[in-house]
Specification:
The chain is mainly alpha-helical. The chain has helices at residues 4-9, 18-25, 29-37, 55-69, 74-96, and strands spanning 16-17, 44-45, 51-53. It contains 5 helices and 3 strands; from the N terminus they run αβααββαα. Residues 15-83 form the HTH merR-type domain.
């Protein structure tokens, strides 16, 4: 079983409810659902079926909200963020293998 300190340091731990996540990001709960529909984030489901979000997912959602606030369509914003993350991962992988 994970220790409390380990959980607090884990970027992928689903610590935030949908309501709290929306409050932190400054968006609606529907916006978070739409990010899930667009495959940007896949929230963990609690035993009761409620969505739970990690800090990493909140950062992605915040990036999407900023782009949408600047006029980018939500589907385009999600695709851009996914591609940026894939590029960053590929660059990181290339640096390790050089």
């Amino acid at each position: 079983m994970a220790q409390p300190d380990d959980v607090l340091d884990d970027e992928d731990y689903p610590a935030y409810t949908m309501g709290r996540a929306a409050e932190i990001i400054g968006c609606s709960q529907d916006f978070l659902r739409r990010l899930g529909d667009a495959k940007l984030i896949a929230p963990h489901r609690s035993s009761g079926g409620h969505r739970r979000y990690s800090r990493y997912q909140l950062r992605l959602a915040a990036r999407a909200r900023e782009m949408c606030d600047q006029g980018t369509d939500i589907a385009a914003a999600c695709r851009i963020i996914i591609l940026e993350d894939q590029l960053e991962e590929a660059l990181r992988h290339n640096q390790i293998n050089q």
